[in-house]
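Protein details
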Amino acid sequence: MVDTANYESLKGLSHDLGALLFGVARVEALRESFLSLSSQGIERLPYAISLGVHLSDRILEDIQDGPTPLYFFHYQRVNIFLDEVALRITFQIQNQGFDALPIPASQVIDWEGQRGHLSHKHVAKEAGLGWIGRNNLLINPKFGARIRLVTILTDIPLTIDEPIKRDCGRCRNCIPVCPAGAIVKEPLEFDHIGCYEWIKAFCRKHNIRQNICGLCIKVCPGVERP
């Protein structure tokens, strides 16, 4: 009952702060992929809280042939917002006498591999917030790929969510819009290098100081929306 009470309390706080996506996963199976995190520290943090927000539909709909200045600003502000929400929840956990480690929503540690401290999307997948789609992003049933994520590692006892057992099915919306041809039928065959090289070209073309595109995100609004 303590686990459930903690879960519902933190989920309620997350919703009050504006992060409507909330899930919890165990960390053990994910630790080997973590980067630049103290092994002594994270071994005592068995739970991962995954938080997510729904990006602005209107801003995404305005994307035509590449990232817009408005999308660039929105992307940056959403990451800052997620970090602030994660901090607020971290403080709440600490006030209850437990430990918590907020992981930045968008901090690159391995530039060559374009990796952060951990994969927020894979944590979110284990926490039941969606599945990894053909576009190599987390796909949420309600919001599709139109989301951003952040993670908190913690030792507060929590109820664990189950991963969603589904995939993109027959949807192929993202394949024809990818200018790099990086998205194909099988998710595991996604061309990471091709995607990254095209995004860098987008940044130069549109004078955007962030590795973003937005085209496959725009056409993936979710499967539970009217």
Remarks:
- Residues 69-95 form the longest helix (27 residues).
- The mean pLDDT is 91.
